[in-house]
Amino acid sequence: MSAAAGTRALRLPRLLSAGPSALIGGGIVLVVVLAAVFAPWIAPHDPLAVSIENSLLPPGGTFLLGTDQAGRDVLSRLIWGARISLMVSLLAVVIGMTCGIVTGLVAACYRQTWIEQVIMRCMEAVASIPLLIWAVALLGILGVEPIVVRGLSFGNEWKLLVLIGLLYTPTLTRIMHDVAVGEIAADYVKARRIQGVSTLSILLGDVLPNCMGPLVVQGTLLVAIGVVVEASVSFIGLGVQPPTPSWGSMLADSRNYIFSSEWWLPVFPGLAISLTVIGFNLLGDGLRDLLDPRHASRGIAG
Amino acid sequence: MSAPLLAVRGLRVAFPIGGVMAEAVRGVDLDIAPGEALGLVGESGSGKSLSAMAVMRLIAPPGRITAGSASFDGTDLLALPEAEMRRRRGRDISMVFQDPSTSLDPAFTIGQQLTQVIRAHRPELGRRAAREHAIEALALVGIAAPSRRLGHYPHEFSGGMRQRVLIAMAVACQPKLLIADEPTTALDVTVQARIVDLLWDLRERLGLGILFISHNLDLVAEICDRVCVMYAGRIVEAATARQVFTAPRHPYTRLLQRCVPRLHAPTDALESIEGAPPRLGAIPPGCAFAPRCPDAAEICRTEQPATRASGTREFACWAVP
Amino acid sequence: MLRLLAERILFSVATLLGVGLCLFVLTRSMAGTPALTVLGMEATPQQIQQFNHDHGLDRPVIAQYWHWLRGVADGLNFGHSLLSGRPVGPMLRADMPITFEIVGIAFVFAVLVALPLGILSASFQGRIIDHVARIVAVVGVSVPGFWIGLMLIRFPAVQFGWFPPGGFTPWSGGVWPHLQSIVLPCFALGIYYVAILSRMTRSGLVEVGSQDYIRTARAMGLGRGLILVHALKNALVPVVSVGAMSFGYMFGWALIIEYLFNIPGMSNALLTAIDNRDYTVVQAIVFIFTLVFIVSNLLADMLNAYLNPKLAHGQ
What pLDDT, on a 0 to 100 scale, did the predictor assign at position B265? Predict the structure, then answer.
């Protein structure tokens, strides 16, 4: 009996018929990811290039979306901002997933023992912490200077993403644990054990792949949340530090011009955030219908 | 012969399947006299439940009643505005369904659910009077300590008791007709007989007409006055219970009869009818039973048999003289 | 059931204390002493040491924590601001109600809009209202609240002058001006939860609508209103517990909203305290926020446990 016996394979026709949500969401996400990856080649101007004579120009001409108070091209800063937002959100989810998968699997393996109890209790405790408030407080206390490790400088956004990732762990642990418990109790696992396959091999080769569905769905939705959290924290000034372009800090800068007519300063970064988040949310919902049979068609757009 | 309590003519119900409307009920006629017990028998998917739901106007979209009339006490139920029909449901004509474990709202006590029905149809009753009625209804269906049990939730009752509660709700306002759609199928065998006894007891006491829907021909033929046999959305035979029991005419009825194992005439092998009923939307032209019928002739495959009456019996078959 | 409740409360208290300790340790060890801020940059080491001793900052951390906890338990004495020397408690007493009011009104707004929207969407599935509600939901969940706030300031407030562009008029400044000053922040804060709660209501109602007991209700001739009551009572169970949790989460987002609209609430006080490295204040505020969050989660769990077994038994 091969591992495929227990794997719910993802068939291409189903993928394509997943409905408009997933495809639209996927499309948006793809655009944003491409913009982030190819930023150095796509961005028309240098996002850090200051030129006072070009400051506060309205959209049009060489500066498609206008310039900010330092004469920097808004469009280029938006494109580079995508890099930071995606990096923070995606890495935060990666950290959360890694920790969550490990702790969830361990907890599921030692079901009905004190190990499981301790792990799940700890996760509950961490989940009792209000994410945003603690992120802000911790960043405030730790300071916003970059961390320098052996000559490599890690900007403040790294602290942020580690923090967010750790605070994501309880959710992902719980999902991993709940699904893994079900899988471990399934017949095919017993069959594999009888075949003499090692426990680790069963876990990694059979159980884990079958648990990925709900995890991927939740991960996608957490990326969306991560984008908003990064923007919010940068908005307050405790996130990505200038001059690195971030959509949140661009919005913070735009506050100075709230009473004047430079409307393009607050509008475009906000649109960028909104579109990105909509993309990930729609993608997550669409994936949920495909991959997570427990919650099919209960998404935000469903 | 007095006017029938319920007279259904030409009832047709259709559902969209793959974009096309497929008929699940294809022209059903039946009569129930006041106080009469009519059994409606058929396999799953024969359209028997749908016919009853159609009469009660409970068909949910996208399904639709596409034709027919259902004259109840002089009024065509299928032509009534919804508000009017709502007044009749539960008060003049009631229905109990198959699965008592999911048919009661778990969030309300059975007392609340009973009094809701009572006060919906008798708004003049105050709370205390309605409560008294509810207690009476529970006592009527044989639930002990009714006033105490009013405050209990559905999950505190066994399956058989829940079905009794549902029957109590159905007869609380003394309807003229009670439709029972496989009321015992989901219950233990020992409980089944008691529920049937209850229904017949109520029929006597309240002068109820009963439409008893089941897939069990034997049970129905034993307890009902008349029996209608349905196949693929049409009634293929309608006769008195005795006639169906002793001398069924339609090939399908005859085969159904033979399928039920009998204690007094043990056979070596269990009989079953070969093949399966046609799927919705894929009904062959001519008689729907022709593919499985041992007596099928050429005409059976091309033309739908007309219904013929013969004494107290009606049936639709080319093969039977 | 009671045992479960006691256990949950005990666990919550333990979490709060444990989390509070982490908080305490962090602020004490990482932030450094505010001595320099208070005494000035030229303070001598002796002056700093004296300052630290006076404020009990040179004792072991656990002892400091215990001392602080006792102060809180005794009379909500959160210590004194390291910056101004004023007691923290009374400072917060003015700020707390403001934050609670903003969150409270935003929450009520969210519920009052989400429920009817969800009910209408479920009742008229596939029609215009359902599509509109769905679009509102997708937008509401994705567009960051603080940007909505920013746009509201830029356009209805600054451009059209319908609302004051930030700032906060307390009740003492008149009922109407006060209400005007909180409309925008409450709206921006609540819109996300309008989206979430309305979709949950809709999907819950749709699922419940196909249940057998709704069929029974219709078959017994119950009126539309009563059938809706049956549907809601069952469908709203998950919505209620999510709602309770949302109340706690809202305090997090309120931080950004208060910052944006310059509202003198607890969150803004937190940001100011962080800026000033006034960590007794930081500690007190984060502790209170965590307490509120834990309590609302506890409430959500309790509500869930209370409402669910009634229904779970039936299955």
Answer: 60
What does the pLDDT read at residue A225?
92
Task: Express each pLDDT in A146-177 by its tens digit.
Answer: 878 877 778 888 889 999 999 999 999 998 98
B177 to each of B35, B94, B138, how far by Cα in Å? 8, 6, 19
In a domain, B89, yes or no: no
**In A143-299, which residue ranges form alpha helices assigned H by DSSP?**
156-184, 187-195, 199-202, 208-236, 247-254, 264-291
Is B188 among the domain residues?
no
Residue B186 placed within a domain: no
CB of A85 less than 8 A from some CB of C? no
Most confident by average pLDDT, A253-267, B176-190, C39-53: B176-190
Contact C138 A124 (CB under 8 A): no
Instruction: Sketch out chain A's domains with CATH numbers.
Output: 35-296 (1.10.3720.10)
Whether C217 and B97 lie within 8 Å, measured CB to CB? no
Angle between helices A74-109 and A264-291 (to 10 degrees): 30
For residue A8, name the pLDDT band (cuts at 50, 70, 90): very low
- Helix residue ranges, H only, C40-174: 45-54, 61-75, 88-123, 128-142, 145-152
Kindly report the backbone phi and psi dihedral angles of residue C258, in degrees, each rounded to the nearest multiple of 5, phi listed first: -60, -40
Among C8, C9, C154, C242, most A C-beta atoms within 10 A, so best to mutate, is C154
Q: What is the pLDDT of residues B142-173, one digit of tens each?
A: 898 988 999 998 988 988 899 999 999 999 99
What pLDDT score was predicted for residue B187? 86
Q: Does residue B153 sit within a domain?
A: no
Q: Supply the CATH number for residue B36's domain.
A: 3.40.50.300
Residue-level pLDDT at A4: 40
In Å, how far are A124, A127, C2, C217, C305 from C298, measured between CA atoms? 11, 12, 14, 35, 10
Query: What was the pLDDT predicted at A295?
Result: 55
Give the burial string for C71-103 (b: 16+ CB within 10 Å, else e): ebeeeeebbbbbbeeebbbebbeebbebbebbb
CA atoms within 13 A on the CB side of C61: 11
Element spanning B229, H or E: strand B226-231
C313 close contact with B: CB closer than 8 A: yes
Are chains A and B touching, using the cut-off of 8 Å on CB pairs and a minimum of 3 such pairs? no
This prediction's pTM: 0.82
The predicted model gives A233-247 an average pLDDT of: 88
Contact between chains at B155 and C313 (C-beta distance less than 8 A): yes
C93 touches chain B (CB under 8 A): no
State the ipTM, two decimals. Answer: 0.87
Find the domain containing B302 and state its range: 6-82+215-315
Distances (CA, A) of C121 to C96, C117, C125, C199: 37, 6, 6, 9
> In 3D, which of B126, C177, C287 has the Cα closest to residue B118?
B126
Identify the pLDDT of residue B305. Answer: 77
Q: How far is C131 from chain A (nearest CA, A)?
A: 10
Nearest-angstrom CA–CA distance, C228 and C217 = 10
| Closest CA in chain A for residue C249 | A130
**A270 and C151 in contact (C-beta within 8 Å)?**
yes
Residue C65, both tokens: 């924590």
Across the interface, which of C218, C230, C313 has its CB nearest the CB of B105?
C230
Residue A211 · residue A179 · CB < 8 Å: yes
Q: Rounded distance, CA B104 to CA A186, Å?
A: 33
Single-letter residue type at C238: P
Is there a contact between A104 and C257 (Cβ–Cβ < 8 Å)?
no
Closest-CA distance, A251 to chain C, in angstroms, reads 8
Mean pLDDT value of segment A92-102:
93
Compute the distance between CA of residue A107 and CA of residue B93 in angstroms, rounded to an integer.
57
Residues B203-262 have pLDDT tens digits of 888 889 999 999 888 888 888 999 999 988 888 888 888 888 888 888 888 877 777 666
- Considering its fold, how many domains does chain B have in total? 1
